[in-house]
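Async update (no meeting this week)

Hi team, since we skipped the sync, here's where things stand on the single-chain job. The sequence we agreed to prioritize is pasted below, unchanged from the tracker. I ran it this morning and attached the output directly underneath so nobody has to dig for it. Comments welcome in thread, and please keep replies under the output.
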Amino acid sequence: MRPIARGTVHDVVDHIDHIVRVAEIDHVGLDSDFDGVSTMPRQLEDVSGYPVITQRKVGTERDRAGNRRLFMDQYCALILMALFSPAVQSLRDLQRACALDKVRKRLGVTRASLGSMSESVAIFDPAPLKEIAAELGHTIRSRPDRRFDAVGQRITAVDGTVIDTVTRVAELSWTPKAKGQHLSAYRLHTHFEVLSGKAARIDATSASPRGDADERAVLQRTIEADRCYILDRGYISYRLWNAINAVGSSYVCRSSDRTLATITHINDLTEVDRAAGVISDEIIDLGWKSRHRIRPDHPVRLICVAVKPHAGCGNRRGPTCDGVLRIVTNRLDLPAELIAEMYRLRWVIEMFFRTFKQLLGCRHLFSCDHNGVEIQAYGGMIVCMLILLYTGEKPNRAMYQMVWYYLIGLASLKELEAFIKSRK
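Output:
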């Protein structure tokens, strides 16, 4: 007789999920009687393992009125469906979708009221989704690129993007107004590891970059050691740069065209530097004592690179470029051409935002609540990671279309798996 493979606490959670979907939550119970069995699931050898079950569950709660059951895993499943369905534009669309028998059967969800879905985000905690994203992130390896081995740190592009809330939701919420119009939007501050192609974290704040929501303040609160942060001009801050340097990380940041600096040393350029467009490589003192109370407390390097000059873009107030890209960094050990190449990697995070907002349907948010924003953001982030893990490539339109065909019943699971296999 073939021995039974030992299960894990994850298998127990899967069984609980199945029972909930078949018989509802009232028919689930946990018993502490461990007699009569010779083998227990891993991490559930005795009653001390019970907390692990609740940690692995995404969560269930009741709403404020106490007359509606809310399941976070079902809410997340509907959000993920919305990411792949251009027809879903609001919470009401999701509510209508979960009333369909095929949707409930395929996603394992129950019928939900509009009130349940709108109030659920105030109850559900997005922290477990962040843990799932972190677990997935650890399994994604950086693509080998020997050029950047000398960096010795995780190259992380940091930037933010603003996403508006669905207009009908915004008008039903108490939100500030400007010129008679409701304002409801969030800024997603994103840390993106460019060599592995994954978002390491997303922090949601109000769209107005002031106070605690200022992108420099958000990054200073979330700095991690052993990273090389690639930053644009919006992150110019001597206080921020000092904080990054203090934790043992480094930065490569675009500087303004009017940088106040005193040159203390000029580095010689190599032929490789000149071929990469590097104009100059200098060690500098930044700021003036009479104007800046806080100045860099570490050596700073200024590298100038020749680029194509351009003016501001149309109606946008984007800064012009005089044909010189000025980059400041605390990495004095790396070749100038490598610093310039690292900054060019910043475009990868812009491509991630494009995928996140246009391809995955996150052009707007379904909720004005901070928890709801993070649930949707981390849902999209997890989708990107899963596609990267299973296919080895970033999300693209072909993959998006195939998953959509599967969800609406035009493609079978076998056809979806065959398509994914063909992309590897």
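Quick observations from my side:
DSSP finds 16 helices and 14 strands in the chain.
The two ends are 38 Å apart (CA to CA).
Reply here if anything looks off.
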